[in-house]
What does this fold into?
Amino acid sequence: MAVTDVAKLRASNRQAGRKFGGSIGIFILLAMLGLFMVLPIYLTIVMSVKPVEELFVFPPKLYAVRPTLDNFRDMFRVLHQNRVPFSRYMFNSIFVTLAVTVLQCVFSSMAAFVLAKCKFPGSKLLNGIIVIALLYQSSVIYIMQYIVMAKLNMIDTYMALIFPAVASPMGLFLMRQSISQVPDSMIEAAKVDGAGLFRICWQIVIPNQKPALMTLIIFAFQGAWNIQAGSVVFREEYKTLPTVVSQAATSGLARAGVAMAAAVFMLVPPIVIFMLAQRQVIETMAHSGIKE
Amino acid sequence: MAVSVENIGKRTKKEKRSMLWRDIKRSKACYGMIAPFMVFFIIFTIVPVLMSLPIGFTDFDMVRPPKYVGLSNFTTLFLSDKIFIRSIRVTLVFALLTGPVSYVLCFLLAWMINEMHPKLKTLFTLIFYAPSMANVYTVWQLIFSGDMNGYMNSFLINLGIINSPVQWLTDGRYVLGVTIVVQMWISLGAGFLALRAGFQNIDRSMYEAGAIEGIRNRWQELIYIVIPSMGPQLMFAAVMQIVSSFTAGTVAQNLVGFPSTDYKAHTIMTHAFDYGWQRFEMGYASAICLILFVAMFVCNKLIGKALGKYID
It folds into this structure.
């Protein structure tokens, strides 16, 4: 980041009537609440590196006396016992996650732009349906999805894992809400300049939606990374990491430490994506100001 | 579209239909751009939803084909299923306690984080969102474990507040409380992150204009500038909050077992799970879900009305 950018970021914090004391107060409040929020996650990490004999001592300690990676080693050993090599599960998860994230972001952004900014026969109805779809929860919906997928011959393929996650009403709703704040005058101006809808969407509107888009990437990645094979994929070759990791943590080695190691292992990629995306969100403020 | 207002009343049906057709043709680009999303949405959401709607009026055990039984599922639910009535109460207590509190908390935390230095923003956002990413029911079980090894028990015993371990997860008096604590802990999810993004999206010139027009401190800025320009994100967070507090159930099932002691943490969703996936009475389970959907729909409309002045 260039020096000027840092200066701009600093300036952005100097807004109307900021008292230094107030900022410190807010910081302390956030830090205290934050401690409550991280404690369980901190304990998860601590327990994942605790040796077996330390797991059940009284009083339970908030740190590991002799940290060890045994739990992780045992987890990977169980994972390697499967008929299918571990790298295959890894590949499945990465492939499914990337496919879902990219498709979901591209499709939702485009649809959200149209639903937020264009009036056409049916647009009102579609906007309503999106919210209703978010609210509708049913325990039979998975059965119906299974029936649909079976009719389309998708069971036991990558499609069964990827396709149902592509059109997420939540992602669309998020983008639509954010795009609705774009001033109409900007879109009208682009139309006058002769830009088509597709170009307006991708060259003018979406580049201005960095915070919402990055948030969508976080949601999409997180959701996709946790997709379990469940009842749509039965062949070992198509199973994803969460499926086999939770199998290893519960049935392979029923030990708290290993379950913790599994949780920590699965948490790393979403956190990395989160950090990368959030940095983009934070940077937006320094660069915005070209709106109206 | 270029239809002059004064003529609109005089159109005949046929003309109207041809106008609609012209509008549709003119909107080709729009339909083309929503098509990729809609194809997947229709196949994997709309069709299964439409297929699931009638199941609530049938007797369906997943083996034999569904048999139409009219409204009998609904009359049984309200007239003779005592546990369902109890689950309504639990869900309401749950939703009314966690919903508004967590919604306000989402907003306040997102705002407070926004007041921090950019480097701290990322860190704090991660800290508050991380619980939504982690799957840590096991650690909560260890924290509230009923023996002396539980963190909670050993902490309270050391302080001398209690003498013998408390059965946090099985004692009917604590079950709902523990579930609410954990639910609150994971509730800073999608809504919180969307609000964070909304804060970043507010144009800097708005703040500058506010400063010129005499805004003196951050409270005034919050009320006169921030909240009015966050309507869409506030609505998004509200919908997500409704869904998460009304459909809560997984937390209780993972934490205090299923069924919970005396059905103390038995929500409507848990009840649907019970009938659907334990007893395979899918028709009955669907009826429960339909009632829940109607409740959420009404709640959503009410909140939409309340937030109305901030939208559009």
